[in-house]
Design goal:
434 residues, single chain
Length: 434
């Protein structure tokens, strides 16, 4: 007994998890911000209709949100690199606050040309604010968390976004039942203000400033490594193709579940409840995904995700019953949960140590191609052939992504000098053709 007690006394104190330092500056404000965004997203089209847009116009207005992410992410990333993560989060919050105040004015003004012009501007500004928040937090995490915990930090960040987006529509439903449409925008305004308060209070100055303390020898070695990574365009291209297969699956999930449920003749309430189940299973997997990526490698998240999601679609198409629909939808959410945080983790792996936000902006634009194009694949094939053809094509894209990454992700990572856990390779294992 004495020996055990003595050993416990001599044992060095446990080092706190690097994730703890992110709770107040990143995770808590992140879930609050996502709750507001999740509340407003379902009513963006409803607000457009209330302002006099027709159905096609309302859909186009909502589509602007995604287009802004594709077009402006590189510029946003470059701006974050110049002003720092903390200032960027503050600026992004202010932009969102201005946009939400303008949305309240537009809804108060009613159906008029001026209100519609202002509302389109609101959607653009909200998209800019959301992209600033996303990129600045990714850059902050990648610079403050050691590579041994990078995937867990990124997947937890993604999990907080999922939880917020899961709870947001429930909040919007309750608010709409009790108040008018503009009350939902007030909810997001409140969440942005609270998130901004957390940023001001807890986000430290840009940690990249510490690099000035590096010795000239260390800095030269680091710069050589950065130049190597910045020149590895092929690795970014390889990962971009595979990750876009995943983002197509993710984007089409929001289309597949409601459309296939309608095709089977299921009620709207049953379809939405099933979709909520997929979101819940998705959100439950985020920390397990991070552990797998940190301990085993990035492919341990990508392979299950790109296997289970196509399998889920195949189940839905080949078993066209209520049971097949529920089982396939649940498997779809479970499979997507395996990949929680994988997109931003691979982006952080590829990013150079300097100007991370600039690269992450480009990476976000690259991977948004799949998200933007996925629903159009479903739409085009459904119009030309059938809804089932769109589902089969989506499953085939996922299988292609699986085979592509299983074959090429390891040499791609080796090309930039890291293993599949994001850790530097020994000198003798580096590829000579990088």
């Amino acid at each position: 007994m004495f020996t055990m007690k003595e050993n416990q006394q001599n044992r060095p104190p446990r080092t706190p998890s690097p994730l703890r330092q992110l709770v107040l500056p990143i995770f808590v404000p992140g879930v609050i911000y996502a709750l507001g965004t999740g509340a407003v997203n379902p009513v963006l089209a409803l607000a457009a209709l209330a302002l006099g847009f027709d159905a096609a116009g309302s859909s186009a207005v909502v589509g602007v949100f995604g287009v802004v992410g594709v077009l402006l992410s590189p510029a946003i990333g470059a701006a974050i690199s110049k002003i720092g993560d903390r200032k960027a989060l503050i600026v992004g919050s202010i932009i969102s606050i201005v946009a939400l105040l303008c949305s309240l004015w537009a809804l108060w003004a009613g159906a008029s040309l001026a209100a519609r012009i202002v509302y389109v501007s609101v959607v653009v500004l909200l998209a800019i604010g959301a992209n600033i928040w996303s990129l600045a937090r990714q850059a902050y995490i990648s610079q403050t968390v050691p590579v041994t915990h990078r995937a867990r930090a990124m997947s937890t960040f993604g999990g907080m976004m999922r939880l917020g987006n899961l709870a947001g529509p429930l909040v919007a439903t309750a608010v709409l039942a009790a108040f008018a449409l503009n009350a939902v925008f007030l909810v997001q305004l409140a969440t942005v203000i609270v998130s901004l308060a957390f940023v001001v209070a807890f986000v430290a100055p840009d940690p990249s400033m510490d690099r000035t303390r590096l010795s000239s020898e260390t800095a030269a070695a680091q710069q050589e490594f950065d130049d190597h990574k910045q020149s590895s365009i092929s690795a970014t291209a390889i990962l971009g193709v595979g990750i876009n297969a995943l983002t197509v699956l993710r984007a089409n999930r929001a289309v597949i579940v409601p459309l296939w449920g309608f095709h089977l003749g299921l009620s709207e309430h049953f379809i939405t409840a099933t979709f909520a189940l997929t979101m819940l299973l998705d959100a439950m997997m985020f920390f397990m995904s991070g552990i797998l990526m940190d301990k085993r490698g990035r492919l341990w998240a990508l392979a299950p995700s790109l296997t289970l999601m196509p399998l889920a679609i195949i189940v839905m198409v080949t078993v066209p019953t209520t049971a097949g629909f529920v089982a396939g939808s649940a498997l779809l959410g479970f499979g997507n949960g395996f990949g929680s945080g994988i997109v931003i983790t691979t982006g952080a792996d590829l990013a150079p140590a300097h100007n991370k936000a600039r690269f992450l902006g480009v990476w976000q634009a690259i991977v948004a191609i799949g998200s933007a194009s996925g629903p159009f694949i479903i739409s085009g094939l459904t119009a030309a052939f059938s809804l089932a053809a769109g589902l089969w094509a989506t499953a085939a894209i996922g299988i292609f992504g699986l085979l592509w990454l299983c074959a090429l992700i390891s040499p791609a990572y080796q090309r930039i000098g890291i293993d599949l856990r994001g850790r530097p390779l020994p000198q003798h294992q580096l590829r000579s053709d990088r």
